[in-house]
Amino acid sequence: MTQPAIVLLSGGLDSATVLAVAQLEGYSICALTFRYGQRHEFEIGAARRIAERAQVDRHVIAEIDLRSIGGSALTDDIEVPKNRSGEEMGTGIPITYVPARNTIFLSYALAWAEATKANAIFIGVNALDYSGYPDCRPEYIEAFEAMANLATKAAVEGGENLKIHTPLIHLSKAEIVKKGLDLGVDYSLTHTCYDPGPEGTACGECDACHLRLKGFEANGIPDPIPYLAGAKPNR
């Protein structure tokens, strides 16, 4: 019987690649997406398209209200930074960091893993082109995994340890794009922008767009998604 895995699927480039990796490794996929009050909610539609194309076993969209907490340009009335230089992006934790987001997401994934008797969770965190987010670092993932194996019935009573898979954590955005292309990922289905236009068109100027464009440029191919007219991405 095929083993299930929980895949955190935001609808972005990284999570679409991770889903393809998990399928390649032979897991049956339970995809988990969050509507958490993010201003770039177009990514939820992207997650649906990716899940449908991949023919996952189940796709759950969980509802969480992180706007009530705020503290991030993605969940509060705070301007999304635009056209930051590589040096600026590599310094400090940006205002687009959502407090405890990956901890919340992984906790939901952990609960679903227990309910489905899955011992694998896949998440597309990245420690290179990650814009300074503290919950994308290897030491954070290791700590959460250790906690998970102290906190679950499956681990404590059954000796079934959970593994958090982070296949992209040491890859550059260019390497991630290449891996996805090799696996047949259709990146035209994905959504990455932090501050899209009314129709979901990418701004081309936020940190997420900058990193994405850089990844495609390094592979010598155009990004297949549309960008707002007049955008001046700082690549």
Structure description:
This protein has helices at 13-24, 42-54, 86-89, 101-116, 138-151, 153-158, 173-182, 207-218; strands at 4-8, 28-35, 58-63, 120-122, 163-165. It has a 5-stranded parallel sheet with strand order 3-2-1-4-5, sandwiched between helices. 43% of the residues are buried. The longest helix has 16 residues, at 101-116. Helix 1 crosses helix 7 and helix 7 (173-182) packs across helix 8 (207-218). The termini are far apart. The model has no long low-confidence stretch (mean pLDDT 93). Strand 1, helix 1 (13-24) and strand 2 (28-35) form a beta-alpha-beta unit. It contains 8 helices and 5 strands; from the N terminus they run βαβαβααβααβαα. The chain is α/β, with parallel strands linked by helices. It has one domain (4-218): HUPs (Rossmann fold, 3-Layer(aba) Sandwich), CATH 3.40.50.
Task: Summarize, please.
By secondary structure, this protein is an alpha/beta fold.
